Amino acid sequence: MSGLIALVPVGHVNSKLLRIFHRIKPFEFYTFDTFKPFDAYDDLRRQYDALRVMSCLKEFASSHGFQKVLGITPEDMYYRNSTSVFGCAELNGVAAVLSTYRLSCVSEEVFLLRVIKEVLHELGHLFGLEHCANDCVMRFCERTDLIDSKRLGYCKDCSKKLKNAIRNVRQTSQARYCTPGDNRILCTSNR
Length: 191
Known about the structure:
Elements: E1 4-9, H1 15-21, E2 28-31, E3 41-42, E4 47-49, H2 50-64, E5 68-73, E6 77-78, E7 85-90, E8 95-99, H3 108-126, H4 144-149, H5 156-171, E9 185-189
Parallel strand pairs: 1-2, 1-5, 4-6, 5-8
Antiparallel strand pairs: 3-4, 7-8, 7-9
């Protein structure tokens, strides 16, 4: 499974949307069936706890032999004290999760562009990229209009770092785990 990223739907995710992931370069995905993370849904908030989801996804990746895993859910999600987040990822870690809940809009085309940008953003974190000030998909955005205005792709600096990181991951069979709750968890929120 070296070089592949486990793509794990958390809840019901449209199959058309899942197929789009397989066209996002330079990443390679292996799609699994729907996964329900234990104890990750907060009934009072009516949202998934991103940290708990990522913890379950890390266990999933480990048990299936993957070094990287991306969860995607149509459900709303939060991280710690935030109202909500678009996505969350371990910096240079194993797990990332993306919520499409607040990316929805009237246009399917705009929705898909938002999803792809946020997938690229969260995967960038998984491969060690931090937020970037350039015109880049790694620019931090806390509102959908900011997502809409950012570039669909990595800047030259981030592209170079990403290429090296992907090569390094493919050359190693050891996944790097970080402890949930440490300062290497990066989220994109709309507060």
